Amino acid sequence: MKNKITEQSQAVKFLVIAASFVIIVAGMKAAESIIVPFLLALFIAIIASPPYFWLQGKGLPTALSMLIVIFAFLFVISIIGLLIGTSINDFTSKLPLYETKLSSQMQGVIAWLTEAGILEKQINLNEMFNPSSVFKIVANTLNEVSGLFANGFLILLMIVFMLLEVSSFPLKLKKMFNDPETSIKRVNSISDNINKYIAIKTAISIGTGLLVTIFLLIMGVDYPVLWGVLAFALNFIPTIGSIIALIPAVLLTIVQLGFGDALIVLIGYLVINTIMGNILEPRLMGKGLGLSTLVVFISLIFWGWILGPVGMLLSVPLTITIKIILDSSEETRWFAILLGPEKAD
Known about the structure:
The protein is mainly α. The chain is built from 14 helices and no strands.
């Protein structure tokens, strides 16, 4: 009888947790327009917090430290906006031309393969896959992401308040818990791991973006800065992101320079991403900050469905944050191990 009651209570507990999860996800989906700027502000605040505290440690007042960090952020965003804003508009205006050229070239390849006997019969490319649609997807995504900065003032305000709140957080913990030292250590450990991941990932992504930009500039591909920024952003999505980033650049190279140069661009992308993502990044990250390939793919779909393109870009940082929080407690560490890479220690 007692075992039956225990089983029923566990079943009820599971149903309550499952129902709560569904309600939370539905709420996040409905509040996408509010959550996306908040998460973007949180992500930027985490990146900005080390220099902010470093300036305070050098004896600068809080207000002056805040002003320096905010102006630095605005300067970086302005430079990026100037560099890629014109490119996005120009690329979007030339989309019909690129689509026509790409479809024509691909149909030419199919005709050649048919004549050579490699393909049994002539096929219509659009019935199988329309590669020109990739250009539309890229343009729509870039426009949607750039449209986020229409909420720039709101995001800026949230960053300021988040940075101010972080300063007083330890004092609040001391008042909240009976054992504040343990709580502060746990929060600091979580915060340090999140900061470490985001700092290293941002540095690697910047390096990847710069190398891609320089490489495409040398190759003579149009909009090298735009594709470099895209490589930087999508590098936050391990493995899958680098593949997505190379597709529009390779297709544009086919249209602009031909298949031979497109193959060189493809190889160049693979070399850059192998060095930065598979050699340098694991050495800097160390163990414990990885995710399994399946979890990366699922998180990409999940966060992308809830929060759109920004959710896709932040999918891995968000999932890594959840993993770090789960890993900080003995009760939930088992779930963090499940989220981790295939070769878990």
